[in-house]
Structures are given as C-alpha cells and as structure tokens.
Amino acid sequence: MLEVDAVIARRLDSGVPLVGQVSRYIISAGGKRLRPALLLLVSAALGFRGEQRFNLAAVVEFIHTATLLHDDVVDESTLRRGRATANESFGNPASVLVGDFLYSRAFQMMLEANDMRIMAILADATNVIAEGEVLQLMNMHDASLDEAGYLRVIRSKTAKLFEASARLGAVLARAPKELEEACASYGQALGTAFQVIDDVLDYDGDAQEMGKNLGDDLREGKATLPLIAAMERGTAEQRDLIKHAIEHGAVEELDAIVAVVRQTGALDVTRAAAAAEAQRAIGCAQQLPRNEYSDGLVQLAAQLLGRRN
C-alpha cells in the first residue's frame, strides 16, 4: 500500500495547481483503500508480484475518488471522512472538473499496462458505475423501490469497482477462467456487503466514527434496504411515515424513523443480507490457493460485518 500511495502522489502531479490541491485534499483524507488492497491481495494470492499491480491499484483508487467528488456534488453532501467535502471547500465546479481529471488520468495510466483486456475491464466498470449513478438518481424519492431494485443500484454503483479490482488481480496473474470468475464474484459480493452495512450505519452508526452526517440517505430521498425492510414489516402508520420521508427528503421525523427501523427488526434483516453476501465472498476466496493473501481475503469479508465507519 505504501507503493500504491507513492504512485498516487506521483500521478496527481499537474501543471494546474487547483487540480493537485483538490485531488490531494480528498485523497489525503484517508479512506479504507479497500479497492486497491483487494487488487493487491488477489494478485499476490495468485502469485503475481509485478510492478503493474501498484499502477492499477492506483488507477482503481483514482476512479473511486472521481466518483466521490461527483457524488458529493450530486448529493449536496457537506461532510465526508470527518471533514468538509471537496465541494464544500472548493465549490461544485472545481469538484466536478477535478473528478474529470482523475478519470482521464486513470485512463492514461491504464494504457501503461498495454493490455486490452485490462482496459476493457476498467472501461466497462467505469461505464456501469455511471449507469448506477443515473439509476440511483432516477430512484430518488421513490418509496416503491423494492429490494431487487435497491440491489441493482448498489451492484452497479458500488460493487462493480470492487468486482473489477478483484478481477484485475486475477488477470495480472494470468489465472484460469474459473479462478478469475471466482475472484470477480468475491469482489462483487464484498462490495455489496460493504454498501449494505454502510446503509445500516446511516441508521445505527455514530456520526463521529463514520465521518458523515447520520440521516444523509433519507435527506437525499434514498430508499435503502433498512427503510425498505421497515416498510415491509411495519404497520400502515409506520409505512406512511417512512414513505412520506422518502418522497419529500424529510428528516424532521428522523428520530421517529430510526425508532421504527429498529422496532421492526429492519436492521437485523439488513445485516442478515450483508452476512449472506459476506459468506458468498468467503466461499469464493476459499477457491483460491491457500496462502496468507487468500486467508486475508477471507478475513476481510468476515470482519466487514463488524465495521462501524
């Protein structure tokens, strides 16, 4: 990861000072670096030790960071990772344009792999993520969204880059098709579990630990799984309360909605959905050769369920 951070720092260099300033602001905020870590673990588990893994790990982090910059503008977010978002600090135009820079820099860097398969995986992932963002925008304030519709969004918007990161590790290692698919399935399952737990924390987390405002999803009119499960299990009065909040982005009744989500057992339902995805990821990781890196993949999926931020 130190090697990846060195690549990131080097490739953020630009002749336009504001580009580097905004890019460094959001990347230096830290984050979990899960996607690059996933690529490194998979490639190492399958025996690849080449330098290209550091370059591609930085590429997926740049793509992820670009989506964060654009997301925060669309969602009008003010807090991420415990501090002001880039759009709050530098304005929306700078955030959008620097996000574009990070996308284009990522595509410059992926050319260096000189591998059409790698380019195809990353180009496809970037396109699917964009589709997921638009799909989520279309679903805003739609209280009729069901679990299948919710999963379709997060598998595009969040899980796709996890899937691509894991698949890239296998492609670098020239793994056979069955192993490559197992790695990609691991990434998709891990990314899905990660987002489902993230949605749990919006109603059961600590704002200080999470580094973002609780209730942000509701404010944006997002029908996430805790709300979907609560409407399915609640009384007519409870359903109407949640439905109104989603349709109007109303957070005045946030405390009452959190109480409903907890009383109906919706958080348990949501955690069970995350646990099923984590278990699917573990099953995929166990198809890889047994070593400290594949053990790390198993451990990563198992620990995901206990995350608090």
Describe this structure in words.
By secondary structure, the chain is mainly alpha-helical. The protein has a single domain (2-299), classed as Farnesyl Diphosphate Synthase (Orthogonal Bundle). Helices cover 75% and strands 1% of the residues. The protein contains 17 helices and two strands. It has a two-stranded antiparallel sheet with strand order 1-2. Strand 1 (79-80) and strand 2 form a beta hairpin. Helix 1 (2-11) packs across helix 4 (52-74). It is globular and about 60 Å long. The mean pLDDT is 93.
Total count of domains: 1
**Alpha carbon gyration radius:** 19 Å
Oligomeric state as shown: single chain
The global form is globular
Biggest beta sheet summary: 2 strands, antiparallel
Number of helices: 17
Number of strands: 2
CATH superfamily: Farnesyl Diphosphate Synthase
Short description:
This protein is mainly α and 309 residues long. The chain contains 17 helices and two strands.
Question: Descriptors for this entry?
Answer:
single chain; mainly alpha; two-stranded antiparallel ribbon; globular; Farnesyl Diphosphate Synthase; about 300 residues
